[in-house]
Amino acid sequence: MSKSLHVCIHGAGGLGSVIGGRLARMGNQVTLIGRPAHMDAIKAKGLHIKGREELVIEENLNCVTHPDQVEGEIDYYILLTKHKAMASALADAAVLTPRIKTAVSLQNGVGKEEILIEAFGSERVIGGSIMEGGTLLEPGTALNHVTTPTTAYFGELEGGTSERTGTLATIFSAAGLGAQAVDDIMHVLWEKVTQVGGASAWSASTLAGNPDLDFGSGLSCPEAAAHYVTISKEMLAIYKALGYTPQNFYAPVSFLKQMDAMSFDEAVEFCLEIGKMFSKQKGVRTSMHEDILGKRKTEVDAIILPLLEQAERLNIDAPTVMGAYRVIKTLDNYCT
Fold first, then answer.
1. What is the C-alpha to C-alpha distance for residues 174 and 328, in angstroms, rounded to an integer?
2. Second label for 227, Cα 20 to 30 Å away, from 32, 93, 101, 332?
3. CB-based contacts of 301: which residues, under 8 Å, 6+ apart?
4. What is the pTM of this model?
């Protein structure tokens, strides 16, 4: 690559720090926009990344707390705030608009691209999706505990690939974040929301009553496994009605193709085996489950509601998904 790229990550918590740190380590100029305590800790002692590698990144990182502190032209602006903070973040980022060449959201859910277009214009926005695990352990330290062979996808929203989507995939891959530019990014986005939505709807509505439960312990119970399969099958019906076929974009942690091909009873047995596998690693939870336990408002309207809206439009029954959504919305009502 002939020149260093400037990547600005807005919402640099756990995942944003993992991405930004890895990109900076490969020589890209990275600006992180995050909370003061986290930014101050990185400035003082570098960014520490634990998990699949033990890294300390001190060079090529500029840490700020507000977009008006960002300097220079921005090749890629990556939005990674929680969905509930998206409107205020983009209002703050308006000051950057003339300097942004390409903008992409790696947040969960669908519909975020339309909001980016309203902020920056359609000519600047591409689609993106990622499954990398990133959690903030403490200010200055992020845990990178989950990855897949292809962990990120980028594509033009109208279809196809381009120099800018290919370049972004290339620098991600070089940084140890396997990425591809794809012709149909909307397929990836809808498959991810189906996968994440199923796990989130099940875990946040089923396990939150007992803080000791995690993904593995929950899925090891036959009744819970049956409930998971019911939710997954309903979501798969919606996804397929949109014209998509399961691809397992995030294999091996994706198993939508298997779930779709199995009978109900076969899928339950399959989930029980997955539960045994996850039981070996304690504390694995979806971010929505973690939000409920932390009494924080969830991203249920970004992840689960779009599927329910499509179910209504396509006249597809999804009563279990609707029930889970209502439970989570009830819990949300008492969170901040």
1. 39
2. 332
3. 83
4. 0.94
Do 114 and 122 contact (CB within 8 A), yes or no?
A: no
Q: Which residues 6+ apart lie within 8 Å of 232 measured at CB?
A: 198, 202, 256, 259, 267
Rounded Cα–Cα distance for residues 2 and 111 (Å) = 34
pLDDT tens digits along 232-248? 999 999 999 999 999 99
Q: What is the pLDDT of residues 312-324, one digit of tens each?
A: 999 999 999 999 9
CA distance 151 to 173: 9
The answer to whether 49 and 18 have CB atoms below 8 angstroms apart is yes
Strand 29-33 relative to strand 100-105: parallel, antiparallel, unpaired?
A: unpaired
Phi, psi of 160 (to 5 degrees): 95, 175
pLDDT in tens, 30-56: 999 999 999 999 999 999 999 999 999
CB burial string 208-221: b at 16+ within 10 A, e below: beeeebbbbbbbbb
Helical pair 319-332 and 185-206, crossing angle rounded to 10 deg: 70
Element (H, E) at 179: strand 179-181
